[in-house]
Each structure stands twice: as C-alpha cells, then as structure tokens.
Write a structure and sequence with these properties.
heterodimer, A: alpha/beta, Rossmann fold, seven-stranded mixed sheet, five-stranded mixed sheet, 12 helices, 14 strands, about 15% strand, globular, B: alpha+beta, OB fold (Dihydrolipoamide Acetyltransferase, E2P), Chloramphenicol Acetyltransferase, six-stranded mixed sheet, four-stranded antiparallel sheet, 19 strands
Chain lengths: ~325, ~425
C-alpha cells in the first residue's frame, strides 16, 4: 500500500472523483494556478482545465453561493476554503441555503456539495485564524460533518463526501497535511458516520477526532508506560456521530476522556458526554472527563498557545483521574 | 499511610453503633477480614471487620461508646506508622477523603489529650443521610449483580465513592451478617432492689432506640398500646369488708381504690421494667414506687402522687389518698405532690364506667385504667356451674418505647394474682 501525505491523499480523492464523474468540480481561492494554498489541488488545473478547477476572488460568501446554485442545477461542487476561519463569511450560504435546501424544497432539490478546508489552530496564526469550528457546523441539521485524522481516512471520507447527496463539511488541518500514512489505491471509501478504533485497550477510552488523534495516541503511549491500557477511538464523523462505537467502547472500559481541539462550552465533547451519561450510565465507573482548548481566544505567544491547546499530558492527567490513580 | 477503620453501617437502618467490645488491642497484628470489634447496631451485635492488613495502630473509640456511622474508630497501618489523629485524639481529616459515603467524620473536639473522642458530633455536623452510599453507577450495578452490600464497602474514590475496584476486591458477603451474636434481651434486673440509690439509669440499647423512634413516628410522641384484663374481685371485696368492719369506729375506711394502689405498687416492685421513665436517650428504671392517682377536678384533672406506696399500709394509703384528693379538688397541692410519679392509676369505676383506656402521663411508661366492679355470671372453677362474681376490668396503657407486650402482660398477671388473692400482698 503506497504511503502518502494527507495532502496527497486528498489530491488523489479529488482527482479520482473528478475522473469518475464529470459533474464534480473544485472552486476556491488559489485552487488553480497557484495549485492550492496548501497544494491540495496540485496538478488538477492541468488535468481538468479551468472549467472544473475554478479560481475565485476573495469572496467566500459569493463562491459558496455559486456552489450552492451549481448543486441545485445538478453539479457536484467541491468548495475549498483557504481555512475555516474564512468560511465564517460564507456561513449564510452554508447554513441557510445548503443545509436547508432539501428540507425546504420538500425533498425536490438535493444538495450534493462539499465544503472543505483546514480547521483549527496551526502554529502562531493568531486568535482569528486558530479556531476549531466543528461544534458550530455539527450543530446544524442538514449538514454532515467529517474530520479525518489520517491520510487514508482523508481520502476515503472526501470521496464519500463528494458522492453524498447532502452538503458535507470536511474539516482538514494545516498541521495534518504533511503527515504520512498508508493509503489504499483506487476505490477507497470510508462511510460517513462510522468511527474507527485506532488502538485497542481495556482501561479507558480516549475519544478523539482530527488532530487530537495524535494527541490521544501519544497519551496512550505514555499511559502504557504506567500500565494503563488506553483505547483510542477516532470519531472521524462528527455528524452523524457513531453512537454505537462510542458506547461499545465505554461499556468495555467503563471510563472515557473526550479530547477535542475546540472550546469547552457547548463543544463536541459535551455532546459525547451527554450520549455516554444517557446511554451508558450504569457502565460508568467515573464521570467522563474532557480535554479541550482553554476557554480563551487562542494566544499568539508560542508558550501560551502550547499551554492553551489539548496536549498528551492533559489527556494522561484526565485518564488518571477517571482511573482514580491520583 | 495508615488506613482508617470507620464505624460501618452494619444494618440498612443503622445510623450509629455502640462499640461493645474490642477483639484486638492496639499493637495487635490484623488481617483484612478479621474481626476487630463487636458493634451493637439497632438490630443486633455485629462484627466490625478489618478492611486492611497491618497492625492495629490506634483505637479511637472506647468500649461502650456510641458513635455515628462513618466516624473513625481506629487505625490500621505499618508498625510505627504515624496516624493523622495522633495527639489530637480526634478522627483526622485527610484531604479528599474526609467525606465517606456516610458523609462525616466527627468534628474534632478542642485539642485535648484525651484518649478517644466520645463526643457525638453536633447535629449540624451529622450526615443528612447517614445510610446513603456514594458509588459509581458501575460499582452499584456490579454490587447489585453479585449481592455485595455497598454499605459494607469503603470507597476509595473521591469523597469515599465506591468504585469498581472496591466492589471487586470486596470479600464475599461476610458470614457475620448471619451469625450475628444475639444480645441478651434485657439487662434490667426485674425486682426493685432497695440499694439506697433511688433509681438506675440504663442507656437505651440500639433496639430500644429504634423501637422508640419508629413507634413514636407511628402514633405520636408516646406510642401507646393497651392491655386489658378482667379480675375477679370477690376476695378483695370480702377482705375489704372484713378490714372495714375491724376498723369500725376508728373511721378511715379502705376503698377499692386503695387496695388497687397497694396492689399495683407491689406488683411494680416485682416488675421494675414497668416502673420506669422514658428519657430520650435512656430509660430510668425506678427503685422507688410512686403511684400517681388521677383525680378529677373542676376544670381538668391532676395526678397527686402517693410516694413509696409499696411500703405503705392500706390505712396510710387510704388516708393519704383521701387527703391528697381533697386538696387536689381545692387546688391546694404543691408541685412536688403531683410530680415525680413512676406509674399512674385512673379510676372511673365510681362513674359506672366498665372499661376505658387512659392516656399515659409522660415520662411515666404506664397507667392503669380501672373500671367499675360489677356482678357477672361466670363459670365456676370446675366450669360446671355458672356463678355470680364481682368482677372488674382494668386496662393498662403502655409506652411501647419502654414496655413491650409481654413485659406488660407479665406485670398484669402479677397484679391480677394479688387482687384475686389479697393475702399474696402480704408475701
């Protein structure tokens, strides 16, 4: 199985889907001539031409709206945001048009559109450019939300998103684009709504997605040195959520720590804690703990930024708390 | 760190326990599961077992002391290990662990070099619900499935939460629960002993406390029950006639009431269990018999007391009761003359009431209601013939916190024997 970067896995997914279906096209800032702000669309302009790889002005609301209109007309647009921080400007089209179209047209107008781009913090981009929006978008009925953490999942989920007849939000990560991993050739689809057990364990479940998978895996390594066997569950999809996978793991380990990039208040972790307490109450040996970004705008200062982010050390500490080890 | 030994809830309703006996001394080696002490619960005497291995470092609670569930009674640890309570003589607080499931550790008394805390915590510090166990949902489920009693476990989680590992490491349900040593029902010597001490205070046993609380909650502050018996007064009537004839012109005739007062007093001497006061946390068993005698007065009733009625002659009783009743009607009684009774009698026989029940005069534990003496057709001794006899019904009201049915019945049997065979009073 070839080893690819996350970036190239996405590129492969786009290329394969555009080859397979002439209705698929990519639109966004710098996706064509510049080959993509993060080079995800490298080589695509050359292969598919400017009709299907469309450079836009810096006007997120405008090109998101063009995408919604194209989807209404029967095309399958992929809208790239240079980052999800800029997608705030396009939220009216995402939330009010894309998410509601099928419902408000009485099922007549499907909305096969993908909105994708890097989400969350990278390194020292300042508070306006370091935000994790998954709880915002996951809140909206009508949207599907995926947040792949590995190159293989990035390919499989983007392909599934493009083929889905509903608007799908694909949350990537600037810090993820360079990570490498085995990626199956050709037809590799990851079903939306299916979590993945990235590491088996018996003492505690670390529930994560996107960049926090790495955090959770490092924490699991450290916990293993302390004779704690941690299970790492990668959600992959945030809406729909794989309730069954979460519950199955918690019923096995009786303890959970939810790790996310975003802020704590009304975050993804809160939703998962709700699920667990509601459906697995009698299996819990300890209250579920959460690890998340500090409840502040992301600091620019390097040390403060590091301190504000979810880290393996914080996850280890939370795991020890649910295990009553401290 | 040394492990605390807590007063455990050894029965579902237990809120405090009396440390009856330490089976181990300070310095003795102990093993988890071994019996450390015998504890009297509200139901029985149970074994308090060690939950850790080591040495019994320190005993915090002396034998005979009652402490709330959850209090530290001792420490187990490695030989020489310091315990938190050292010097202070109080159950020490340990961060994060001071609240067990039962919620409290006794508030430390002012630091004083006392060997053990005997104070029961102020009500404010008492747990709201001493029997509530904090346990994780999982621990609760496992305990339920495996029949482990969570109350017997010491939680190792925050705030004493019982967690999975506590349930899994719990010893199999202790056999002690079934093999509880039964405690002698009564430690109260039956007859009155004239020792010069007017009374003896006996602490309420746990079972007595529970009876008191439950029955009081059931029918009011003084939980009454009633025992009725019918007494053949033929011989008493004959005796009374003979005595009165002998007294003749000296005056001061003996009434049935006087005879009954004397008989009741003598019967009480044999049944001290009914000659008692209920005193919240103890029962006062009187070694003197002071009979209160209900007297109707213009706007109510009052109960003048005939002191040491058991030691007085019928004539003295007669004179005293007549004199007291007279002054009662004139409202001339001094407080000390209508207080301090140990048992009361209420007689409505002269009003032709055949049978009634009287309300106990607290803190006394009993009162007898006397009905009228009426001729009745009853089978004779052989049961072959019907004969007419003078008979009287009397009903004793008992405070169930002090007197149980059988106790009251035994007293009434003695009383009945005395009234039916007045000569027995001379014994």
């Amino acid at each position: 199985m070839p080893t690819l970067t996350y970036r190239d896995a996405l590129n492969q997914a786009l290329r394969e889907e555009m080859q397979r279906d002439p209705n698929v096209f990519l639109m966004g800032e710098e996706v064509g001539v510049y080959q993509g702000a993060y080079k995800v669309s490298r080589g695509l302009l050359e292969e598919f031409g400017p009709q299907r790889i469309v450079d836009t002005p810096i006007a997120e609301l405008g090109f998101a709206g063009i995408g919604v209109g194209a989807a209404m007309g029967g095309l399958r647009p992929v809208i790239e945001f240079m980052t999800w921080n800029f997608a705030i400007l396009a939220l009216d089209q995402i939330v009010n048009s894309a998410a509601k179209m099928l419902y408000m047209s009485g099922g007549q107008i499907p909305m096969p559109i993908v909105f994708r781009g890097p989400n969350g913090a990278a390194l020292q981009l300042g508070s306006q450019h370091s935000q994790a929006w998954e709880s915002w978008v996951s809140h909206i009925p009508g949207l599907k939300v995926v947040a792949p953490a590995t190159p293989a999942d990035a390919k499989g989920l983007l392909k599934a998103a493009i083929r889905d007849n509903n608007p799908v939000i694909v949350l990537e990560g600037e810090m993820l684009y360079n990570i490498k991993g085995d990626v199956p050739d050709g037809e590799h689809l990851v079903p939306i709504g299916r979590a993945d057990l990235k590491r088996e364990g018996k003492d505690v479940t670390l529930i994560c997605h996107s960049k926090t998978l790495t955090v959770a895996q490092k924490a699991a390594d450290q916990l293993a040195e302390q004779d704690v066997s941690a299970e790492v569950l990668d959600l992959r999809s945030l809406r729909p959520l794989d309730d069954e996978a979460i519950l199955q793991s918690v019923r096995k380990t009786n303890r959970a720590v939810v790790v996310e990039e975003g802020w704590p208040h009304a975050g993804i972790g809160a939703q998962i804690v709700d699920l667990i307490q509601r459906e697995a109450f009698d299996d819990l040996d300890a209250p579920v703990q959460r690890v998340h970004q500090a409840d502040v705008p992301m600091p620019y200062n390097k040390h403060l930024e590091r301190a504000a982010k979810a880290s393996p050390e914080k996850v280890v500490a939370a795991a020890r708390r649910v295990l009553y080890l401290d | 760190m040394a492990t605390k030994v807590h007063m455990e809830a050894l029965s579902p309703t237990m809120e405090e326990g009396r440390l009856v006996k330490w089976n181990k001394k300070e310095g003795d080696p102990v093993k988890s599961g071994e019996t450390l002490a015998e504890v009297e619960t509200d139901k029985a005497v149970m074994e308090l077992v060690a939950r850790a291995d080591g040495q019994l470092l320190k005993i915090e609670v002396k034998e005979g002391t009652t402490v709330p569930v959850g209090n530290v009674v001792a420490w187990i640890g490695k030989p020489g290990e310091k315990v938190d309570g050292d010097g202070a003589g109080a159950p020490a607080k340990q961060p994060g662990n001071e609240k067990r499931e039962t919620g409290n550790v006794a508030t430390a008394p002012a630091p004083a070099p006392k060997p053990a805390p005997q104070q029961i915590p102020q009500p404010a510090a008492a747990p709201a619900d001493a029997t509530r166990v904090k346990a994780s949902p999982l621990a609760r489920r496992i305990a339920n499935d495996s029949g482990v009693d969570l109350k017997l476990l010491q939680g190792s989680g925050p705030g004493g939460r019982v967690i999975k590992r506590d349930v899994e490491s719990a010893p199999a349900r202790p056999a002690a629960a079934g093999a509880a040593t039964t405690y002698p029902v009564s430690r109260v010597p039956s007859p009155v002993v004239r020792t010069g001490v007017p009374y003896e205070d006996v602490p309420l046993t746990q079972i007595r406390k529970t009876i008191a609380k439950r029955l009081a909650a059931s029918i009011g502050p003084v939980p009454h029950f009633f025992l009725t018996t019918e007494i053949d007064m033929e011989r008493a009537a004959d005796a009374r006639e003979a005595i009165n004839k002998q007294l003749g012109e000296q005056g001061g005739k003996i009434s049935f009431n006087d005879i009954i007062i004397k008989a009741v007093a003598l019967a009480l001497v044999q049944h001290r269990a009914c000659n008692a006061w209920f005193q919240d946390d103890h029962i006062r068993y009187w070694n003197e018999v002071h009979i209160g005698m209900a007297v109707a007065i213009e706007d109510g009733l009052i109960t003048p007391v005939i002191r040491n009625a058991d030691q007085k002659s019928l004539r003295d009783i007669s004179a005293e009761s007549r004199e007291l009743a007279g002054r009662a009607r004139n409202r001339r009684l001094k407080p000390e003359e209508y207080t301090g009774g140990t048992f009361s009698i209420s007689n409505l026989g002269m009003f032709d009431i055949e049978h009634f029940t009287a309300v106990i005069n607290p803190p006394e534990a009993g009162i007898i209601a006397i009905g009228s003496i009426v001729p009745q057709a009853v089978p004779d001794g052989e049961g072959d013939h019907v004969v007419v006899r003078r008979r009287m019904k009397l009903t004793m009201s008992c405070d169930h916190r002090v007197i149980d049915g059988a106790t009251g019945a035994a007293f009434l049997r003695t009383l009945k024997q005395m009234l039916e065979n007045p000569l027995a009073m001379l014994l």
